Structure formats: structure tokens, C-alpha cells
Amino acid sequence: MSSRVALAALALLALAGAARADDGVAARVNGTPISTAMVNQVVKGAISGRPQPPSSEEIAKLSDAALDSLIDLELLAQAAQARGITVSDAQVDAEIARQKAKFASAADYDKAMAASGLTAAELRTDTRKTLQVNQLLDTVVWKNVTISPEQVRAYYDQHKDQLGGKTFDAIRPAIERALLEDARDTAQRRYVDELRSKAKIEK
User: Fold this and answer.
1) Is the CB of residue 78 less than 8 Å from the CB of residue 102?
2) Rounded distance, CA 115 to CA 112, Å?
3) pLDDT in tens, 45-88
4) pTM passes above 0.85
5) Closest CA to 93 of 116, 117, 113, 123
């Protein structure tokens, strides 16, 4: 999963537990609260479908990881806003329609919206934030991230015995994608670490 898709998925998981006035606050990022409900919803998404319930120790670790991810998301959203990155209403409409199309029926979508407790206005606000973060990643964080043909060839040569006898030409696109994703993850982590060093984060 690419960093951008991971962020979008995380944001959508968090929507179902979006902050309410009576939620406990798990952290504040430059004054912006992240609710315990948001953290819990991300954890629920991570463990859903498992055959065995996780231990209390695993839940604690997942909660810590979820909170850190939500803090990163908020930092990126604030950075996007500080840079004046904007998203049009048409882009928001298109993204909501894309997410809605993932449901089997309009009734299923309406049921999920009702269960989340989100209003249509809140959904638009959170969708806009996610799209702003994606634009920040594309135009700033990943702007100069590239993979050279030499890197792709070197990876193939080093891992040829593990690639099931596939030729270089056959597997090159997959290697390029994997290396680019790794490079983007590294660039994103470096960027977020810098944001964290300058931010006021209260847990």
C-alpha cells in the first residue's frame, strides 16, 4: 500500500470515530485535538476480521501506533493548510462519490454514514483534509523522489534467485513500484519527523 493510500485509508477509518464535544482527548497537535474515539476506531479497523481477539497488550500497542499515525496525519494536514494547498468542491464531490461506489448499494452507504454519526458537512470537511494531504505529498514531499534504471537493475541482480526465474523485463515494473514506494515512505517519514520536531504535541 502506498503512503498516500495508507493515509487516505487511515483518515477514512478515523471518520467513523470523528471527534465530538464529549469525546476524551488522546492528544493535541498544535492545539488541535485527536479524540480517543478516533484512535479506537482505527484500532477496530486494524483488528476487524481476525479469527482470534487480540490480547490487551497487543491492543495497547495498536492504540499507540494508531495515535502516532493520527498525529502524523494531522501534522501533514496542518502543513498543507500552511502552504495554502486548496481542494475544489468538485474534487471533494468526486472523492466522496468514489468512496460511496465501494459500497454494494446506496442503502449500505447510508447505513455506514448513520453508524459513523457523521453529518454530510463533516464528511466533506474530512474528505477535503485528506485530499489536501495527498496534494502535499505529491507536490512537496515526493516531488523529487525518483528511482533510476540502475537502482532497478541492481535490485534485480541482487534478488534474482528469489524472483522465481522471472526475466528482468517481466518484473521490472513491479520492482520500480516497490522501490518508489519505499523511497516515498522514507521521504515522508523524514518530512513528518521534521514537522514533529517543530510541533507542540501533547499526549
Assistant:
1) no
2) 5
3) 788 778 888 899 999 999 999 999 999 999 999 999 999 999 99
4) no
5) 123
End-to-end CA distance of the chain: 28
* CA angle (49 as vertex; 47, 53 as ends), nearest 5: 55
Distance CA 40, CA 64 (A): 10
Phi then psi for 25, rounded to 5 degrees?
-100, 120
Q: Where are the beta strands (DSSP E) in 38-162?
A: none
Per-residue pLDDT reduced to its tens digit, 122-134: 889 889 999 999 9
What span, in angstroms and rounded, lies between the C-alpha atoms of 90 and 83?
21
Beta strands at 25-29 and 201-202: parallel, antiparallel or unpaired: antiparallel
- Give the relative orientation of helices 168-198 and 56-82 as an angle to the nearest 10 degrees: 80
Eight-class DSSP state of 88: -
Q: What are phi and psi of 194, to 5 degrees?
A: -65, -40
- At 42, the amino acid letter reads V
CA–CA distance, 60 with 39 (Å, rounded to integer): 11
Cβ atoms of 185 and 1 within 8 Å: the answer is no
142: cell is 515526493
